[in-house]
Design brief:
This protein is an all-alpha fold. Helices cover 70% and strands 0% of the residues.
């Protein structure tokens, strides 16, 4: 009988997809509540990210029989961060280019208003920055999302892997493939 080895990518992919659903719900909740795109409430979307990262590592640990090395814990969390970053980046691109392009205008107007109020840039500089940002907004958003999720996920995975770590003692036996010794002498 073939023993199936646990893979860190299975729970990472599962929880990344669940996080994608949670992010879509949060995004549309913010849109329907008409919250300011630059408010600090946007950081609430990182709470499900953190929770699902921990659940990824816990599920992988459970698949390994309750034992998890630091490297295995980090790898499962890191894979989750990569999958989540890619999924959220795809959603971000579709959201800003197809589903809600008016949100780009809203974000740009809020940014322009803030730059004008700060008074650090001339109106020509603000206009040039706004034109470039409008042109490449979706690309900036996608690259930013991937980078932020992977960086944040890497840092959290390094910390949480130390928390979830439970290495097998050298005296423990692996019960999955262990066969008791058989006598070599048939007379015994």
């Amino acid at each position: 009988m073939e023993v199936k080895k646990a893979s860190p990518s299975q729970p990472a992919l599962k929880w990344a997809l669940i996080n994608l659903i949670a992010s879509v719900v949060i995004t549309y909740a913010f849109q329907f509540l008409d919250l300011d795109p630059n408010s600090s409430l946007k950081y609430l979307s990182f709470l499900p990210f953190l929770a699902f990262l921990f659940l990824t590592q816990k599920e992988y640990k459970d698949q390994l029989g309750g034992y998890l090395t630091y490297g295995e814990g980090f790898l499962s969390g890191f894979l989750y961060a990569i999958f989540t970053g890619v999924f959220i980046a795809i959603f971000t691109y579709v959201y800003y280019t197809i589903l809600s392009p008016d949100m780009v205008t809203k974000i740009m107007d809020a940014s322009q208003k803030k730059m004008t109020e700060d008074g650090k840039l001339s109106q020509d500089q603000i206009d040039a920055a706004m034109n470039m940002t409008r042109k490449y907004f979706a690309i900036f958003a996608v690259v930013g999302v991937v980078f932020i999720y992977i960086l944040f996920g890497t840092i959290v995975s390094l910390i949480s892997a130390a928390i979830f770590k439970n290495e097998r003692s050298p005296f423990d036996t692996v019960s999955d493939n262990y066969e008791s010794p058989k006598p070599t002498d048939p007379a015994v």
